[in-house]
Specification:
The complex is a heterodimer of chains A (372) and B (279).
Chain A (H helix, E strand, L loop, with lengths): L3 E10 L2 E11 L4 E5 L6 H9 L6 E6 L2 E2 L10 E4 L11 H11 L4 H14 L15 H13 L5 E5 L7 H18 L2 E6 L2 H7 L2 E6 L2 E6 L1 H6 L4 H6 L6 E8 L2 E4 L2 E4 L9 E7 L4 E2 L7 E12 L3 E7 L5 E7 L9 E6 L5 E3 L8 H6 L13
Helix pairs in contact in A: 2-3, 2-4
Chain B lengths: L1 H31 L19 H7 L10 H32 L5 H11 L8 H10 L6 H26 L2 H10 L3 H12 L1 H17 L2 H6 L8 H6 L9 H23 L14
The chains are: A alpha+beta (372), B mainly alpha (279).
Chain lengths: 372, 279
């Protein structure tokens, strides 16, 4: 196993800078997930680590070696592709053995390793089948087996679960988490699915437009998003955003005025107020910021429901409420927002968190916000 | 109503089939009839079936009385098989490069290949003659092999490039990470998955070389260098045509092509990459 270090990694296609100055350090045995919308450069970054894309500038280190110009096969990595990329004309056994054969591993060791890996992945019964005769989940496991059998220093996963149906995806997600514990492998994992990122990662790297927006543990990114983009991308349903004015410790939302909590006392001028749906209550007796709102839509999910409301000034707020306290559609309710869990952002889609602007000095390394 | 319809459509189909097959049946009839005349009768069956024409065709001798058919058959086989294998190797490697690598002259090369296809083959007779003359390869089987390989190459390259373009790149990327060299990827991953395209290309190259007449007739002087189409043409004289020998020879000469088609047919299947990549 080994650590991976990306220093100012960049990728340019003609005039387009697809990946801009990515800095990331993956510790030995760590599970790091790159997450972001499509086209954010996460796959390109992974493919640069794999050696499938040339690195335009910057330094890539695997273990103690700079591998910028090292061929993929000599980087001691294995990759699992979104499309599985199994060799269709080879049996499961041959698929798994191919990488070892190419490296001149003795046949009896190949047989032993394939047997061991197929046992871990419960593929023993399918070793002589062709990929065509396997289900989607089984193909995905063969793709993982092909990587595991090589015992590489670093595993790279490129959206490995995107082609599976919802149920299988949850199952395979748990399987990947178990594998990570069992192999204590260094893993770099790309996905556009923030749930996958939250559940699997030791640390999450949120990317947008080729730039890292924030790096941190899943809950840290969730609780303290560095900017409005991260706040909106992580969490489902997404964080509510309401335009507001900050002035001398007060926050104005439409005609309503509230006292701002201490961390935001310095905020001035037009800002974006952010609040997660679970921090919005529809019960009149709850404390916090009170806002009258009209219930527009109630979406029951069983244990809880999403309630979409319209507040004065035209903005809408989604609340996540327990099913037993459901309001009716059309009803007017008093929303209460938990002030302790309030976020304020500078204006714009990428507006920085004002809490971090204040606190950025003590912890710059972890919660770095690249975008200004 | 539907019965009348079915009867009508079957009548039409039977008639069309008959019209299509009649010339072929005539060839069979002439081949199996001992006389050398041309019989226009509608009856496709010979009156007195005989294998004499076949016997005469295969026991064909040269002017000194030596049996030469075997030599000429061997010429055809050697030239066609060598041109096919050589052409296939060159076309596959070139097509893979055109499909996967970006290099200066790639577009120009592909366009040039296409351009050569736009001229009729006979237009190249004189340039080819001069080239082979300079190479001292006139009246030499190697000369024919060179000509056949190069003239079928453009089509084969385009054909194979089109197929290689459809192969998922992830397979090659996976193999690269698995440690395979570019040559190994080509042999172990790309070629096995391209069997249908390789089969069609091989069949095309073989047929082109096997059936070619004009160049072989002009460039080969000595009878012992003739290929079978040239031999066949020798039964069509300026004054009379020996239809029986000619028909028997035609059937014999078409046999290897038909056999090759059936041999390659099992590779002409789609879906070889099924299961390899999703979506």
């Amino acid at each position: 196993m080994a650590r991976v270090r990306l220093q100012q990694l960049e990728k340019r296609y003609g005039d387009v800078l697809a990946v801009r100055g990515v800095d990331l350090e993956v510790a030995d045995g760590e599970f790091v997930v790159l997450v972001g919308p499509s086209g954010c450069g996460k796959s390109t970054t992974l493919r640069m680590v794999a050696g499938l894309e040339e690195i335009t500038s910057g330094t890539l280190t695997i273990g103690d070696r700079v591998v910028n110009t090292v061929a993929p096969k000599d980087r001691d990595i294995a990759m699992v592709f979104q499309s599985y990329a199994l060799y269709p004309h080879m049996s499961v056994r041959e698929n798994m053995a191919f990488g070892l054969r190419m490296r001149g591993t003795p046949p009896d060791e190949i047989a032993a390793r394939v047997a061991e890996t197929s046992r871990i992945l419960e593929l023993d019964a399918y070793l002589d089948r062709k990929p065509k005769a396997l289900s989607g989940g089984q193909r995905q496991r063969v793709a993982m087996g092909r990587a595991i059998v090589r015992r590489p220093a670093v595993f790279l996963f490129d959206e490995p679960l995107s082609n599976l149906d919802a149920k299988l995806r949850v199952q395979m997600r748990a399987e990947i988490a178990r594998l990570h514990r069992r192999l204590s492998a260094t893993i770099l994992y790309v996905t556009h699915d923030q749930v996958e990122a939250m559940t699997l990662a030791s640390r999450i790297v949120v990317m947008k437009d080729g730039e890292v927006q924030q790096i941190g543990a899943p809950l840290e990114v969730y609780e303290r998003p560095a900017n409005r983009f991260v706040a909106g991308f992580i969490g489902s349903p997404s964080m509510n955003f309401v335009p507001a004015q900050a002035d001398a410790g007060r926050l104005l939302v439409g005609d309503l005025a509230f006292a701002l909590p201490a961390p935001f006392a310095h905020a001035r001028g037009a800002v974006t107020l952010g609040i997660r749906p679970e921090d919005v209550r529809t019960r009149a007796n709850a404390g916090g910021m009170r806002i009258p709102a009209r219930v527009e839509l109630v979406e029951p999910l069983g244990a809880e429901a999403f309630v979409t409301t319209a507040i004065p000034g035209g903005a809408s707020l989604v609340a996540r409420v327990p099913s037993r306290e459901l309001p009716r559609e059309g009803e007017t309710v008093q929303l209460s927002l938990d002030v302790e869990r309030l976020h304020l952002f500078e204006l714009g889609d990428n507006g920085r968190s004002l809490a971090l602007v204040e606190q950025s000095a003590p912890k710059p390394a972890k919660n770095r916000c690249v975008n200004d | 109503m539907t019965k009348t319809r079915a009867a009508a459509s079957h009548t039409v189909l039977l008639f069309v089939t008959f019209v299509t097959l009649l010339p072929v049946l005539w060839v069979f009839k002439m081949a199996l009839t001992a006389e050398q005349g041309f019989n226009m009768s509608l009856n496709p069956f010979p009156d007195h079936p005989s294998l004499d024409n076949f016997r005469v065709f295969v026991s064909h001798t040269d002017s000194t009385g030596h049996w030469i058919f075997g030599r000429q058959l061997a010429n055809s086989l050697i030239v066609s098989i060598t041109a096919t294998l050589g052409g296939l190797f060159l076309a596959a490697t070139a097509a893979y490069a055109f499909s996967r690598f970006r290099f200066p002259g790639r577009r120009a090369g592909l366009t040039a290949f296409l351009l050569t296809q736009m001229f009729p083959g006979t237009m190249m007779m004189i340039p080819l003659y001069l080239l082979l003359h300079a190479l001292h390869l006139l009246d030499n089987l190697l000369g024919l092999v060179l000509v056949y390989t190069t003239t079928s190459l453009p089509f084969c390259v385009w054909m194979l490039k089109g197929y290689f373009d459809t192969l998922p790149r992830e397979l090659e990327e996976a193999a690269r990470i698995d440690g395979a060299s570019p040559a190994r990827i080509f042999w172990s991953i790309v070629l096995p998955l391209s069997r249908p395209a390789l089969a069609v290309t091989a069949l095309f190259s073989f047929m082109t070389a096997w059936n070619e007449f004009i160049i072989a007739a002009k460039f080969m002087d000595r009878e012992e260098h003739y290929t079978l189409p040239v031999v066949l043409a020798s039964y069509v004289g300026s004054k009379d045509v020996q239809w029986g020998y000619f028909a028997a020879g035609s059937l014999l000469v078409s046999f290897p092509v038909v056999a090759l088609f059936f041999a390659l047919q099992k590779h002409l299947v789609s879906g070889l990459t099924a299961g390899g990549v999703k979506g």
